[in-house]
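Invent a record, attention on tokens:
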Amino acid sequence: MRLFPIAALIAVPALVVGLAGPVPSSAEPQGNTLLPVQVEGLAPIENDNITAAREQAVADALQRAVERAAATLVPPETLAQQDALLREQLYSDPVRFVQTYRIIAELPAGTLYQASIEAVVDREPLRRALVDLGLLTAGAPAGPLGIVSVTARGATRKAQLDALTAALGDQGQAQRVRYRSAAPGAVVLEVETPLPPAALAQELARLQVEGAQVTVASPDGRRLEVLFTPVR
């Protein structure tokens, strides 16, 4: 699977139009504002045109990625109240905010085309756009780092996974933990946390569970893999 720079987004023609408008500059320090997310996009397959449906599904996924990032900056009630404005002014042009993305799964499913992507959203230009719309104060920080994907491998007991999810939620490390998918030998969790992945990895490395040794790795600096190795 390739990592696509956003400059190569010509594969999604509907999104290229918005590239003409520059993002306002800011003198505020950006810090670490990159938010990795995994999202799924859907599009109808019309007249058996798989290519067009695929492009629309990817475009829908990119829009959802920006929606997810906006939810880390603006209260949910504001997002709900201003949904029409946000769709017109922000979500219709996600390429302004998505730094890179890659397609991790795609397939036709009946009359729909599904595309799952892993995207990196830069929340600093998104924050400035929200300020311009009057939905965020100019001095508001970028907020918590956001979503970290945690893949648990080798857990053979429910108690081991329970210990992992409890550790993720302890001491304010994570506001929310969701199960994304489960397959033989691997469970993927989505963690909403104020900690960067490296700090979260350090916390998880202290985890002690019965019947297994826990090791933590970060393949690309954004995702975590937690390996449970059986011990006697």
Remarks:
- Helices lie at 50-70, 76-81, 83-91, 123-132, 158-169, 197-205.
